[in-house]
Amino acid sequence: xxxxxxxxxxxxxxxxxxxxxxxxxxxxxxxxxxxxxxxxxxxxxxxxxxxxxxxxxxxxxxxxxxxxxxxxxxxxxxxxxxxxxxxxxxxxxxxxxxxxxxxxxxxxxxxxxxxxxxxxxxxxxxxxxxxxxxxxxxxxxxxxxxxxxxxxxxxxxxxxxxxxxxxxxxxxxxxxxxxxxxxxxxxxxxxxxxxxxxxxxxxxxxxxxxxxxxxxxxxxxxxxxxxxxxxxxxxxxxxxxxxxxxxxxxxxxxxxxxxxxxxxxxxxxxxxxxxxxxxxxxxxxxxxxxxxxxxxxxxxxx
Length: 302
Known about the structure:
Oligomer: single chain
CATH architecture: 3-Layer(aba) Sandwich
Distance between the termini: 36 Å
Order of helices and strands: HHEEEEEEHEHEHEHHHEHEH
Number of strands: 11
Radius of gyration: 18 Å
């Protein structure tokens, strides 16, 4: 908790406008949640000393909106990580949203459904359905938030990076086959921070793969959920960050996605740090370099 409080105070010190902006949360779906079982809500929150709140067992997805005081037209939907076991909602969600909003980018933190057979009919589809619905919502309501409907990106950390990469490569097919809304769910850009990309045996983060697909996925499921295998020329421009000494999610995940982008003519920028491990959030304390500054520079080119 000390880590979280110090980071919040640091953000307030450099971002007085952001500190005064009051975020608000809305249900992701206005009515029934697709692919959902009618069971009691068992969501629970754990406080972690090095990252703030970690939320388990989400079955009712939400969007928390950080509206920029002087919006520049760009929007970013943020998918916190958590190995598809939960979401690091503060460290990889709200703190990031505050930083983006301070830079005139309207941010939407997605608390997506955690894959769970007890709450989802098909748990492998629930997070992607939520990501696509979030894109749909922001695009439909772009004018309300001062957002350009053609400048909506998706961002993810760790397993949230897998979700963001899936949204960036699997938009041609709706994750909810019953959805009638024709609004495009293709993000206009993607931001992947130490992302889980591949579900192949050599690169996978086992926990993420098992939580999404179960212990014994088919080869077809593995290929579909390996985002580097799904990149094609229609994949949106992508920004990647990773540390070479990441022992949880091998840096080869980002390299594989970057390579696929290059091979398909997709604009991509990647920043690799020699150290930092996994889950450093906004602050890789092993380097004076600030990856968020690199991201903001990149965003000015879009």
